[in-house]
Specification:
Elements lengths: L7 E5 L13 H4 L4 H8 L9 H10 L4 E7 L16 H4 L4 H11 L3 E7 L27 H18 L5 E5 L8 H9 L4 E2 L27 E5 L16 H13 L3 E6 L9 H17 L1 H4 L3 E2 L8 E6 L2 E6 L8 E2 L9 E4 L4 E2 L1 E5 L16 E5 L11 E5 L1
Parallel strand pairs: 1-2, 1-7, 2-3, 3-4, 4-5, 6-7
Antiparallel strand pairs: 8-9, 9-10, 10-16, 11-15, 12-13, 12-16, 14-15
Bound molecules: alpha-D-glucopyranose.
Alpha-D-glucopyranose binds next to loops.
């Protein structure tokens, strides 16, 4: 199985779009002009920003890295850049990325950076080949070469001024081929991993808000999903996913060898809204209880036939993951028909009762042939709030 060095991370979408609290792409989606957006962004001066609180929340959930939106599509820069005035120093007077990098360093949390290729503030940024564009404004001079020079200058600031960066997350493929951009990123931080949304293929794939089919990923993969259904940035009227829904997709992605970025959008002050923080904690508790199943290098069983569970094997250990919330306290593992030496429910750490039995429905009557016994798990906690159960069988 192909796995990236770190499995579970926190995605953080934060910028002036937290002020209207609607969606991170509000400027494009609501057709807001550049000057009007800039006037709104001028009030972006987060006062309660406490990056250590973010890092501690991520730690609590067992996350190993944070991927932060250094620049989203609006073009607003969350660090002290010399390349544009449209940045956090001019509105809030503090380099929030530097503070985050410091908090990460202090708590041994890796840091990754998200950098949007669409840039609705740069006069050269418009790219007719790409999605997520705002139409150029009077005086703009779309120019891909000139824009790439700007990007390179910012990449240099980001990759030389904020310590080691674990992964580089380009967003929105420009549909222009230019491998020199990734070469440049790598020249500044040779160990960095680069995603697949830039000017060339990159090191890892990034399925978004979805769980691809299959047993394993053919290359490095980092899936991403937000705790909220409608926005990555802070949304006041957000409808949050259930922890069970999120945990189920995380479970499958991890089973396939992928990594997972779970996103939150802090509010205008930099505070992660409590419902989002609570989801991270709940998913994190689940993850920490079952993490062994992913950390042990278990390989998915591709020939597995029991439809109720996914299965992965590591030597004599077989890990079973329920695919759906239990409908009763028992689980049939047909066609499995041998007793394990032991069975443990990782979610609780408790032993699981196993029986080899032919159940009434499989007795065919006096003159028929009864079906052979199959392995059953009994007295499982049905009231599990729908979180995936992970059972370790030892053979
Ligand atoms: C999409 C969205 C963008 C978001 C990203 C996260 O590409 O356009 O707003 O940041 O997904 O992966």
């Amino acid at each position: 199985m192909i796995t990236m060095p770190k499995r579970f991370g926190m995605f953080i979408h934060w910028g002036p779009y937290a002020i209207p609290a609607w969606h991170e792409q509000i400027r494009m989606r609501q057709g807001i002009g550049r000057a009007e957006y800039a006037a709104m962004a001028a009030d972006f001066a987060p006062e309660k920003y406490d990056p250590e609180a973010w890092v501690k929340l991520a730690k609590e959930a067992g996350m190993e890295y944070i991927c932060f939106t250094a620049k989203h599509h609006d073009g607003f820069c969350m660090w002290n850049t010399a390349e544009t005035d449209f940045n956090i120093m001019k509105t809030g007077g503090r380099d929030v990325l530097a503070e985050l990098a410091e908090a990460c360093r202090k708590h041994d949390m890796a840091l990754s950076l998200y950098y949007s290729i669409p840039d609705w503030n740069h006069p050269c940024g418009y790219n007719e080949l790409s999605t997520h564009q705002c139409m150029p404004e009077p005086g703009d001079t779309p120019d891909s070469e000139a824009y790439r020079a700007y990007v390179r200058a910012q990449v240099k600031e980001l990759l030389t001024g904020y310590g080691p960066i674990y992964t580089w997350f380009w967003d929105i493929p420009p549909k222009i081929d230019d491998p020199s951009m990734n070469d440049y990123v790598r020249s500044l931080q040779p160990g960095i991993l680069i995603n697949d949304r830039g000017w060339s293929e990159g090191d890892f794939s990034t399925p978004e808000r979805s769980v691809p089919d299959g047993d394993t990923f053919p290359r490095y993969t980092e899936a991403c999903q937000s705790v909220g259904q409608y926005s990555w940035g802070y949304r006041e009227a957000e409808e949050y996913f259930t922890p069970a829904f999120l945990a189920r997709s995380i479970d499958k992605i991890f089973l396939m060898g992928g990594s997972y970025l779970l996103n939150v959008g802090p509010d205008r002050d930099g505070v992660i809204p409590e419902p989002a923080a609570e989801i991270v904690r709940t998913v994190g508790r689940w993850y920490l209880s079952v993490r062994e199943a992913f950390a042990c290098g278990a390989e998915p069983e591709s020939e597995w036939k029991c439809s109720a569970v996914w299965a992965a094997r590591a030597g004599e250990r077989l890990y079973l993951h329920t695919k759906a919330p239990l409908i009763s306290t028992g689980l049939s593992l047909a066609p499995l028909d041998t007793m394990p030496e032991s069975a443990v429910l990782l979610n609780t750490g408790e032993p699981v009762e196993c029986v080899l039995e032919t159940y009434p429905e499989d007795y065919t009557g006096t003159f028929g042939v009864n079906r052979p016994p199959v392995l059953r798990l009994r007295n499982l906690p049905a009231a599990d709030n729908g979180m995936p159960l992970v059972i370790r069988l030892l053979y």
